[in-house]
Design a protein that fits this description.
Layout lengths: L7 H8 L8 H10 L1 H25 L5 H6 L10 H25 L14 H20 L9 E2 L3 H12 L14 E9 L4 E8 L5 E7 L11 E5 L2 E8 L2 E7 L3 H14 L4
Antiparallel strand pairs: 1-2, 2-3, 3-4, 4-7, 5-6, 6-7
Helix pairs in contact: 1-3, 2-3, 3-6
């Protein structure tokens, strides 16, 4: 008996709980026969749960007044009361949706939050742990390709990231603390590229180090801690570099590893 053909779109439909009932038995049969796809589906579901836990609190926050005003029809516009209410509701929903999309991409949407009117350098500092946590949640559960360039090509990875960021960077050595480098990738920041290095211990637990050069002019160098949903983040500024170490491990253990990363990445 031939195995059912299952598309990538149908696997994602399982994750989104929109798969037609008639295809459920075929999917179950396929996953039993293809353990790699079953593991990938579990990773997708774990990623979805982590993203929901991380961002659900944002949905309950009120829309800033400056953006709410954009949804209000200009004075003198001749529209009916019903149409005006509909326009306001529709516009508010569109703005809120746009903000959420911007938040996921690490763009300027989060600037509409409480840090909206702070200085640019303070805003970038406030954004750092959340952007790092989002990048961690998106890429660390990936079972097949969590990084763009693996640790077996570390020299090429570091050279490539250094070139793209326009300054020398390197991946801290954390093996003595139980975490081996598995690779890294290039990500978009607010105004340019940022780097992410990923580490893993013997149990499969992963940490990510997010490295940005968008912090020029920020004199705040203290170690800081943030909790973004289920993700703990230690972040700091070192010269023009901003670092954020993210993981779902205990705060004390993460602090110990962050200190080791800081000591290796200290710049004059």
């Amino acid at each position: 008996m031939s195995q059912p053909v299952i598309s990538e779109a149908e696997l994602h439909a399982c994750v989104d709980a929109v798969l037609p009932e008639a295809r459920r038995s075929d999917i179950e049969q396929h996953l039993t026969a293809q353990p790699e796809d079953a593991e990938r589906l579990r990773a997708y579901l774990a990623q979805k749960a982590s993203l929901r836990e991380l961002f659900n609190p944002v949905l309950d926050e009120p829309l800033p007044e400056r953006l709410r005003a954009l949804a209000t029809p200009p004075q003198g516009l001749e529209v009916s009361r019903h149409r005006a209410a509909h326009l306001t509701r529709w516009s508010t929903q569109r703005i809120a949706a746009g903000l959420l999309i911007a938040l996921f991409s690490g763009a300027a949407g989060w600037l509409a939050h409480s840090q909206y009117q702070t200085s640019a350098s303070q805003s970038r500092m406030a954004l750092l742990p959340r952007q790092a946590a989002v990048a961690h949640v998106v890429f660390s559960p990936d079972a097949r390709r969590p990084v763009e360039v693996g640790a077996d090509h570390e020299d090429q990875l570091v050279a490539w990231l250094s070139k793209r960021l326009g300054t020398p960077v390197h991946a801290p050595k954390l093996a003595a603390l139980g975490y081996d480098l598995i690779g890294g990738r290039l990500l978009p920041g607010n105004s340019g590229p940022v780097a992410q290095f990923m580490y893993q211990d013997s149990s499969g637990q992963r940490l990510t180090l997010y490295l940005s050069t968008e912090n020029v002019g920020n004199q705040e160098t203290a170690f800081r801690f943030a909790q973004e949903g289920p993700i703990n983040v230690f972040y700091w500024i070192d010269g023009k570099f901003g670092y954020a170490l993210s993981g779902s491990i205990a705060k004390d253990e993460l602090a110990r590893i962050a200190k080791a990363a800081y000591e290796q990445n200290e710049h004059p």
